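Anyone have tokens for 6-phosphogluconate dehydrogenase, decarboxylating? Sequence:
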Amino acid sequence: MTQTRADEQAVATADIGVIGLAVMGENLILNMASKGFTVAAFNRTTSKVTEFVEGRAMGHTILGAYDLPEFVGLLKRPRKVMLMVKAGAAVDTFIDMLVPLLEPGDIIIDGGNTYYPDTVRREAAMREKGLYFIGTGVSGGEEGALTGPSIMPGGSREAWPAVQPIFQGIAARVADGTPCCDWVGDGGAGHFVKMVHNGIEYADMQMIAEAYSLLRGTLGLTPQEIGAVFTEWNRGELNSYLIEITADILTKLDEETGQPLVEMILDTAGQKGTGKWTSVEALDVGSPAATITEAVYARAISALKEERVAASRVLKGPLPQPAPDRELFIEQVRRALYASKIAAYAQGFQLMDLSARENGWTLDFGSIAMMWRGGCIIRAQFLDRIKEAYDAQRSLNNLLLAPYFSDIMAEHQAAWRQVIASAVLGGTWIPAFSSALAYYDGYRSERLPANILQAQRDYFGAHTYERTDRPRGEFFHTNWTGRGGTTASSTYNA
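Reply: yep, here.
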């Protein structure tokens, strides 16, 4: 430190410091200041500090710093430093620079979209140095960061009391005033829950896009007409932020052409990796999350624009189908969308359950649903129903088994199946809708054809099998050809 202890005490007035003045960092700082907190701000490119302090931060309780010693010297003990920088190497670089300037009991917070194993590693490394580390998911985009995001902190539990007033003070709130922020769990639990949030977000967005495609392609509705349909849907059980903004998107006109702006946007979608991480995690722990994974693949196939254009001239689809009844089909698509959405959320919560057991976390799924109820991208009315389901049965294995959701699936599945059948016959691409139904049908099946799979595995690899007439956990091997031996390879995970 460059200051004496007396000098340091004189300037240590900031409740928290934030490093990184991109849009999210700036907006979080302004949010904190608006709630009465004094915030120190630093950016590696120091001209951004000047620009911020003399611009948007003017008149707020925001202190600019131009090097890290000055920045750390502005912070009250225990010092709380929040990193809002690009995930990956940049986080480690700043941690390495901060550690010599901090003291035992100080707190480093990573607020980026970090892969949760990195948070596990960093928390353990900081603990060895006497420091606390929090990995926190922040959802809501730039508007949420400014007005109230959903915040999902995890890591060093001992640090939570020091940051709780700040995080819960700036978070979005549900109708009863509950903040959309609570402690998630140890290690990488916070970033893990944010990762699954983003995986569900991928699925939700893809399903909404498929509903648009069905109404556009099958019924020939204009974007403005579909926007009106979405606005109506947003008044009912599909009420959500994503439905709301999609209605706005569909009615926006391009200033240059006067055409619907959505029609002028190239059909290729980007991604930053969190959806892929969710799919990889699901594969690692053996949790079926096909709809989330299909949403990731949907973005991948959208990126093959030139190949798709060329293929469209070679690969033939079915003949046009008769147009269905307009109002009936719109209602069927609405029901199919809601049923698919429930299946995708069921996959996400099932993944969190299985991964929590694997990592030794105790996750409160009702609390997580409330953290997602406001501020975040997937905020939706039906998250209240998810909380009710877990409040009623904390050991619930799958959301589909809760009475509200099982009733909805029974009520909506005829329309869901009809929509998918119509899409398949008409050659309309609906991977999320289809995989959601496949998940539902697989989960509700008492008997699946996996007996054939395991017989095949035992035939060519002596991987053994269990029998229907013997207790679980007993394994058997058959010499299928008469040429093999009696030695088995290994048991299997099921």
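The longest helix spans residues 326-359.
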